[in-house]
Write a structure and sequence with these properties.
Structural class: mainly alpha
Largest sheet: 2 strands, antiparallel
Number of domains: 1
Radius of gyration: 15 Å
CATH topology: Sufe protein. Chain: A
Strand content: 5-15%
Helix content: 55-70%
Oligomer: single chain
Number of strands: 2
Number of helices: 7
CATH architecture: Alpha-Beta Complex
CATH class: Alpha Beta
């Protein structure tokens, strides 16, 4: 199995990809394309408890913990948001809770997301990051409790 890239390495890749586009229209097109590639979420996960709070559009986010790593799946009813969550999944999925909690996610600012997204979308993006970090924290605490008992 190939060695997984670090969170920072994946962030750098995304920054490089975005640097290829001159206009924000092109960047939005790219984000929408990323969203279209996101595998659909099983209907069973589209429940209220899996919704990300603080997002204007509906976003469902679920986390699966296997072999010390967290794997995320998500879907949204908004194409841009779907692209944003697909980038977050690409960066954070498959990493340990500790790595996810320590991730700075500077790529969001580097590619200009914080300045080009509408305030409501920006808040939604932060809510998605917060939710993913909350999952990581929960699994980390669960592990610590399990190892102590």
């Amino acid at each position: 199995m190939s060695e997984q890239k670090s969170i920072q390495a994946v962030e750098d890749e995304i920054v490089d990809e975005f640097s290829l586009f001159d206009s924000w229209d092109d960047k939005y097109e790219y984000i929408i394309d990323l969203g279209k590639k996101l595998p659909p979420l099983d209907e069973q996960y589209k429940k209220d408890e899996n919704k990300v709070r603080g997002c204007q559009s509906t976003v469902w986010l679920v986390a699966d913990y296997r072999d010390g790593k967290i794997f995320f799946k998500a879907e949204s009813d908004a194409v841009i948001v779907k692209g944003l969550i697909s980038m977050l999944i690409r960066v954070l999925s498959g990493h340990s809770p500790e790595e996810i909690l320590e991730a700075k996610l500077g790529f969001i600012q580097q590619i200009g997301m914080t300045t080009h997204l509408a305030q409501t979308r920006s808040n939604g993006l932060l809510s998605m990051v917060k939710q993913m970090k909350n999952f990581a924290l929960a699994y980390k605490l669960k592990n610590e409790t399990a190892t102590k008992s």
